[in-house]
Amino acid sequence: MSFQRWALLSVRSGDGRPNTREAGARGLRRKSWWFGSFLPAVMERGGMLTVRAPATSANLGSGFDVFGVALSRPADVVRVEKADRTTITVTGAGSQYIPEDPEKNTVGAVAEALDAPAHIQIDKGIRPASGLGSSAASAAAAAVALDELYDRGHAREELVPIAAKGEAVVSGDAHDDNVAPAILGGFTIATDSGVTCVDADVPLVACLPDIVVSTRDARRVVPDGAKVSQLVETVGNAATLTTGMHRDDPDLVGAGMYDSVVTPSRAELIDGYDDVRDAAFDAGATGVTISGAGPAVIAACHEGDRRAVGTAMLDAFADVGVESRVYTTRIGDGAKVYTD
Questions:
Q1: Dihedral of CA 67/72/78/79: which sign?
Q2: What's the confidence (pLDDT) of residue 177?
């Protein structure tokens, strides 16, 4: 299902803000969402507290429901003001498909959890249903912003489960693998005992096709079990990836992305995934996998190969008739607070 078709089933109407460019001779439009004009505008107004929270990529192949990274781009921006009751407005990428009812929006749940009513404006730089942590970014930004606004005094690590409660409004489950890097930045390992964060720096490319994979469908195809040989392989790959993050080594990170348990089943939900993966490797990627539940595809690579990898992924999707947009990015910082 394309994102546009999925969006027709949503509850509100309005206009998003895509930038487009032609996809070579095929005439396909490659879209990229932006939010750059929002932050300077809000900074000009007095008394506002604004937080930018990044897109994230969860799982990274071998770290299902555990690993996550913050991306330097794209990002959501959330502005908050104290109020007697919470109200929400949403602008930006896919905003017309996001409910503004606080009971149905991820930031409304965060405001309730912190007992911090506010007028909340969300500017979406991350398309919903992308596999890039769209709901997590909004929840993370709201958690950091409202905690600061009301001087609740939580440590960043303490805000992770609060933001996860907000994301659960959208996804149905409170997982930390996206909200943790959105708040803390870097590479995160989220377990029942807490979150470990590594300040990594690895070049990445994220390619987002114009299709939708529901989290429910992505969860449904996850195998109930795995062979011991697969578990051994996955542990080895996860250890390799973690070591690569500590060393800022894209070769080790890429090698550690391989997963034979969850990714193959989810790949069947993404048209052209195998071709895109092969094209990225041919262009210099060191590792390729599905970002979160999909449909975005994430690739690790060396700095000088990012442009070639991104172009190869765009062209591979185009070859199977799927429009896409690419983000040349890297592991980045967590939520950042701006005050006047």
A1: positive
A2: 92
* 221 and 193 part of one domain: no
pLDDT tens, position by position, 15-60? 333 333 333 333 333 333 333 444 444 443 445 799 999 999 999 9
Sign, CA dihedral 91-269-208-289, equals positive
- Domain harbouring 54, CATH code: 3.30.230.10
Distances from the Cα of 230 to the Cαs of 81, 243, 261, in angstroms? 50, 20, 7
Q: Give the domain extent around 142.
A: 3-199+332-339
Q: Check whether residue 68 and residue 38 sit in a common domain.
A: yes
Please confirm, yes or no, whether 167 is among the known catalytic residues. yes
Cβ-based burial of 212 (10 A; exposed 0-12, middle 13-18, buried ≥19):
buried
CATH number of the domain within which 326 lies: 3.30.70.890
Is there a contact between 308 and 279 (Cβ–Cβ < 8 Å)? no
Among this protein's residues, is 215 annotated catalytic? yes
- 86, 106, 188, 215: the catalytic one is 215
Please, which residues have CB within 8 angstroms of residue 45's CB and are 6 or more apart in sequence? 340
Predicted structure pTM score: 0.85
Give me the catalytic one of 91, 167, 234, 286: 167
332 CB neighbour count, 10 Å cutoff: 21
